[in-house]
Amino acid sequence: MAWTLLVVSGVLDVCWAISVKMADGYSRLTWSILSFVLLAAFIYALGRALQVLPIGTAYAVWTGIGAVGSIVVGIVIFREPATFFRLFWIAVTLSGIVGLKLSST
C-alpha cells in the first residue's frame, strides 16, 4: 500500500506542476485553486507513504516520478523538445527508480 501511495503522490505531483503552469502566475482562479488542492493531496499521500518506506528511497523514487512525468507531459502536451539527450536521461532516471524499488525491503 505504501508503494501505491508513493506512486499516486508522484502522479499528483505531475498534475500539480501542470496546474501551476496553467494557473499562469496564479492569475487564473480555477487553476490556482486546483493547484493548492493537488499540492495538499500529494503531500498527504507522500506523508502516508513515508510512514512505512525508507525516506531516502521513497523521496528519490517520488522525485523521479515527478521529474520524468513532468518531462513527458511537457513533451506530449506542451510540445517541448524531445531531444536524444532528454530521452536518454529519462531512461537513466527510470532505471534508477526501478533499481531503488527492487533494492528496498
From TrEMBL:
Subcellular location: Cell membrane
This protein's GO CC annotations: plasma membrane
Cited Pfam families: Multi_Drug_Res
Keywords in alphabetical order: Cell membrane, Membrane, Transmembrane, Transmembrane helix, Transport
Source domain of life: Bacteria
Primary location recorded for the protein, binned into one broad class: membrane
Membrane topology: Multi-pass membrane protein
InterPro entries linked: EmrE-like (IPR037185), Small_drug/metabolite_transptr (IPR000390), Small_multidrug_res (IPR045324)
Endpoints of the signal sequence: none
Family per record: Belongs to the drug/metabolite transporter (DMT) superfamily. Small multidrug resistance (SMR) (TC 2.A.7.1) family. Gdx/SugE subfamily.
This protein's name: Guanidinium exporter
Species for this entry: Rhizobium lusitanum
